[in-house]
Specification:
Two copies of one chain form a homodimer. Chain A is of the alpha/beta class and 338 residues long. Chain A is 41% helix and 16% strand. Chain A has eleven helices and twelve strands. In chain A, helix 4 packs parallel to helix 11, helix 7 runs parallel beside helix 8 and helix 9 crosses helix 10. Chain A binds a DNA duplex (16 and 16 nucleotides) through helix 1 and helix 3.
Chain lengths: 338, 338
DNA sequence: CTGTTAGCGCGTTCAG
DNA sequence: CTGAACGCGCTAACAG
């Protein structure tokens, strides 16, 4: 029909006919069947965001950046949670391929490369977010974890800390590895002897943060500062510290990767490396929309966004006399709440 | 083809043929085109969750409940954010109708009834979440806001408070209205004279919480306790209190609707009415799947889930001598951080 | 500028 | 038990 031309605004239609069609559409409250259109055009005007944990506000912000950007171009977004499981991830990727989404924004779970291969096989454009896939030619948007970690640890060193622990996510996730690399470089810069015991890999969640903190608290001499690989790890670590009455920052400084959105916390207390999460989502969606708009074969681009150290009250110089090897017990353990 | 029968496991296929087809499928890494299937069957195996604010963990939990449940039956979920705007909402609803989702889970924005009508017109099953639509025959899943508010305010009264303010969301949103109703009933139960000045409607976000708190802090005699309609409002209110050096709970008690997920806060401090958010999502998805499985014409059901008062440290008896009308200034304003 | 023809890749229906 | 014919609602590619 000519109707198609009117709706898609393609080809020539006389103003009169157009008006007539428009009227009919309004009268019938006609909505074109997108399915049929998609079947024909091979494009669904849908992209997917596959991420590891939607309950993390870092990813929530990314999601909003993606959604807002995609919508400006008429794209819908499907959100998928892998819970950091490679298996869930591949399951979702299959689903998305079947549903013929036009492209996939992927925060890869630990060690996942199979999904990318699968997506490639089916000719789907992919943008990797937040994390880096070694030796893959693919669009990427992230912050420089190594540099961010370097700044964070450098901050601790500048305060006078020498025994600094790092608690982070899975070894196989690039952000974890990079954050540890930045940590190591910061130590090396100052000629501080690295201690393998003080580097702990785990999961990017609260229970793991708790466990890892318990582990490093048992070490003697005890570290005077902790660098937490993300906000959930920090929460777990702080719980462990509170339990045994260690005060922050008097007895232990803590610096964290990822801030919480403003308004989220009653009184921002943690010194953090803040990533522009919304912007990551926005840029990633932008890259994807570029690909979708034509330059599908262009060289892969990598966008590295800056992160920023925000100094607050969870970091301070170490105590002049190290009494940390005794177990202090105070009444108001950490001194920060809710 | 016979292939269709194999894939859908419908009709008779000889084991041999089936084996042959299976082999071919594996070899070619064949994935059926869901679009074509959907076009034919008029079903997309997709439901949508339209909510007001994905950055609120209450809705994030609901989203997870929905997703987990839908996936068990092979349904995909589209998440949509309306930012509490009726206009965005109707836009999304149009999009979803066009995309032929099988059903819509809706957290209606203030006063929205147009969306529901539109969805009905197009024969889409709808489940309303969290909020109540007056005079509509439709499936609903929510908690009893009136009862929850009653318990919260009753708790304050039991502590000895008499001048209690309530800060809540838009008047047109049922949860706001119900929470105020519960508040009023709790006062009436004890024969406490209601004061219209102490009831403030606004938005369910941080800035609004701040503004509303400023407003009630100017009232003399000043209230000794605040009931906040949701967590974001509480955050804003607490910021206002801190700014002027009012301590919680010494100078002002505060009780809040909605808890934060465990691990979210360093040390849970707020006394809250906790709603089973994940369960709301789960039940709503369950209701939808029921409809989709057949009983489309069954009577609408309403599921009301219980909420629970969790008493923590933000509530205490009012100070014996009321000095609240003077503006106290302390060094450690609120005494709770991060 | 408008209409016609021919599928997109499936599932339904009905003969083999 | 299997295949052939047909159509879901739309658009690409041509004529008119």
């Amino acid at each position: 029909m000519t109707v198609s031309r009117v709706i898609n605004d393609s080809g020539y239609v006389s103003p009169e006919t157009r008006a007539k069609v428009d009227r009919a559409i309004a009268e019938l409250d006609y909505m074109p069947n997108v399915l049929a259109r998609q079947l024909r055009s091979k494009r669904t005007k849908t992209i997917a965001l596959v991420m590891t944990d939607i309950s993390n506000p870092f990813f929530t912000s990314i999601a909003r950046g993606v959604e807002d950007t995609a919508r400006t171009q008429g794209y819908a977004v499907m959100f998928c949670n892998t819970y950091e499981s490679e298996c869930e991830e591949i399951g979702y990727v299959r689903l998305l391929i079947q549903r013929r989404v036009d492209g996939v924004l992927l925060v890869p779970a630990a060690g996942s490369t199979g999904s990318l291969a699968l997506l490639r096989e089916h000719g789907l454009p992919v943008v990797i977010l937040d994390r880096h896939l070694r030796a893959e030619q693919v669009d990427e948007v992230r912050t420089d974890s190594e540099a961010g970690a370097h700044v964070a640890v450098r901050h601790l060193i500048d305060l006078g800390h020498r025994r600094i622990a790092v608690l982070t996510g899975p070894k196989a996730v690039s952000t974890s590895a990079d954050r540890v690399a930045g940590y190591r470089r910061a130590l090396a810069d100052e000629g501080i002897e690295p201690d393998r015991e003080l580097v702990v890999f785990g999961e990017y969640n609260e229970p793991s943060g708790y466990e890892m903190a318990r582990q490093i608290l048992a070490i003697r001499p005890r570290p005077t500062a902790v660098f937490a690989g993300n906000n959930f790890i920090a929460f777990g670590a702080i719980r462990a510290l509170r339990e045994e009455g260690t005060r922050i920052p008097e007895d232990m400084s803590i610096v964290v990767f990822d801030d919480l959105p403003p308004g989220w916390v009653l009184d921002p207390f943690l010194t953090v490396v803040c990533q522009p999460a919304y912007e990551i989502g926005k840029q990633a969606a932008g890259l994807m929309l570029d690909r979708l708009r034509g330059d599908a074969a262009a060289d892969p681009r990598t966008i590295v966004l800056p992160s920023e150290l925000i100094t607050r009250r969870s970091t301070a110089p170490p105590r002049p006399i190290d009494v940390a090897s005794r177990s202090p017990r105070q009444t108001d353990p950490v001194g920060n709440r809710s």
